Amino acid sequence: MKAIVQDRYGSAEVLELRDIEKPTAGDDDVLVRVHAAGVDPGVWHLMTGLPYLVRVMGYGLRTPRIRVRGVDVAGTVEAVGKNVHQFEPGDPVFGTCDGSFAEYACARAERFAPKPENLTFEQAAAVPISGTTALNGLRDAGRLQPGQEVLVIGAAGGVGTYAVQLAKALGAAVTGVCSGPKAELVRDIGADEIIDYTKEDFTDGTRRFDLILDTAGRRSIARLCRALTSEGTLVIVGGEGGDRWLGGFQRQIFFAPLRSLFGKQKLIGLVAKERQEDLLTLKEFIQAGRLTPVIDRTYPLGEAPQAIRYLQQGHASGKVVLTVSE
Predict the structure, then answer these.
(1) What pLDDT was estimated at residue 51?
(2) Judging by DSSP bridges, how do beta strands 193-196 and 173-178 pair with one another?
(3) Residue 314's pLDDT is what?
């Protein structure tokens, strides 16, 4: 089968389209014929091995432990292990796996769910990582309650477009932070108000929010706390910028827990979990018409390096997706 493979860490040039052996399903696994695969910032981190914290976390100190890139996936079940009873060959599914930038991918059954009937495979592949991250951030870490004022920073991004829609579906009043050219998109997906961060400093303390979901990853904890109510919650998603050792993750690893010790504001560094029950929750929102994936553009499998370069430039509105097979 064809797959996007890397043997060393580096920029997008280390990725190669190669023929490799097709995976086989273990007793608890599902083998999927991949129709589409989502591209998220985590792919860049695993490709480059940066920050070095990524390598220490078990992804390979000198070379990548997992050689095929990609996590988000949507496709058709090809085969199942003997202990798998919830899926059978031919079922359309979406979920996560290690190595979705390939014609076939394999993972444990609990990492998949039935594909929403009203989505294409490309749309479904855009959901798992970003959708579950937004859901975990708002519902679980943020404990969002109906009627609360929610600020989504990076509202036009992969996680942000889901966060705006889910916050509205959960009963919040939503303000989205984005650049001016993306304001119309953020308004169209349900934001009540828009802040153009190039023209307005929303951390000046003039307005405060019950819950802030920060997907942009660069502003200091102190500045963000000025935009929180006295007992509000800040949820930090990911980390960009910073040095080669910790990147921007020091905000959620060190700064947020430390500052939480000295006040009533709750500062949380999100560690999103890949759970089948969350995929099923997202499926319910999607099929009810309350959540729609936003796709900026698609690339064929062989152009995965170009897709990652485009995403890393920071201009994408919503998700970038690879199309793999019909």
Answers:
(1) 72
(2) parallel
(3) 86
Across the chain, which has 326 residues, the per-10-residue mean pLDDT values are 97 97 97 97 89 76 92 98 98 98 98 98 98 97 97 97 98 97 97 96 95 87 93 87 59 65 84 91 98 98 97 93 92
3-state DSSP assignment of residue 33: strand
| Beta strands at 173-178 and 149-153: parallel, antiparallel or unpaired | parallel
What residue type is 292 in one-letter code? T
Give CA 152 to chain center in angstroms.
14
Answering whether pTM is above 0.90, one says: yes
Ranges for all domains in the chain classified under CATH 3.40.50.720: 130-269
Give how far Cα 157 sits from Cα of 149, 199, 267, Å: 20, 19, 22
Axis crossing angle, helix 41-48 with helix 304-312, rounded to the nearest 10: 110
According to the model, what pLDDT value does residue 244 have? Answer: 67
CATH of region 130-269: 3.40.50.720
Per-residue exposure over 49-61, b if at least 16 CB sit within 10 Å of its own CB, e if not: bbbebbbeeebbe
Do 30 and 107 meet the contact criterion of CB atoms below 8 Å apart?
A: yes
Q: What is the dihedral sign for C-alpha 50, 55, 60, 65?
A: negative
2-127+293-323 maps to CATH 3.90.180.10: yes
Helical packing angle, 158-169 and 128-135, nearest 10°: 50
pLDDT for the residue 311: 94
Every domain of the chain with CATH number 3.90.180.10 lies at 2-127+293-323
Detail the DSSP E strand segments found in the chain.
Answer: 2-5, 16-19, 29-39, 72-80, 92-96, 104-108, 112-114, 149-153, 173-178, 193-196, 209-214, 228-236, 266-269, 295-300, 319-323
